[in-house]
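Can anyone check this?
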Amino acid sequence: MEVKTNYNKIASSFNERYIVNYLTDVEKSLLSTASDNNTKTILEAGCGTGRWLKSLNKLNKKLFGLDFSIQMLKIAKSEISETGLVNADACYFPFNDNSFDMIFCVNAIHHFPDKQNFFSEVNRCINPNGILCIYGVDPHIDKNWYVYDYFDGVYEKDLVRFPSLTDIKELCEVFKLQIEEQIIVERIYNSRRGEEVFSDPFLRKNMNSQLANLSDEEYDRSIEKIKEQIIKQPETTFITEINFYFTKARKGE
């Protein structure tokens, strides 16, 4: 059974990840896409603490955010009180048909338990000629992350949680959403040697869902594996190589 990340528990520290890695190129892509004059109403599915909606505030659009975590939404409300924030499941939108010109999600689709229903709801709620934008990673392509090597079962779980780019393309086709772009928008690369790995903020338990979903015992056991490897080979290199992909699809007229 898939473990669901408890974002109510980690909401208070969630924004620390953007201090470490602001994802500047993802933001540029999102702002560029949302700037279209025909895009007036925008919904973010899985809006979390509102980091991306806050970026869009400058565009003078009508913004809405949806998230399953009450605590995440409380933080979002304190940052962007004028945005329409809704506590709901991203697989069941509490909105009328043809409500939005653009629906997007950033690094969130892997948390949606029923991806097919999410696409069905997008198709229902998006206006004709409206766009769906999905930003995220694909472990089916990119697996050069040391966390996958030292934390047992994490990679296998990610293969189940994260839809591949092909999966996303096929779901778009099922729901008559025409793919316009499917490209890399941001590349993340870090290399740490030996003890330097413990300076990696993303090795902390609540900095990503992969580690947050582990029990304390599982997490501690894997940290010990890293320590043992460094004792054995002090010059071991720990690589993080992750790409963020952008899928843009449009609903027909």
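Reply from J.R.: I decoded it. The first strand starts at residue 41 and ends at 45.
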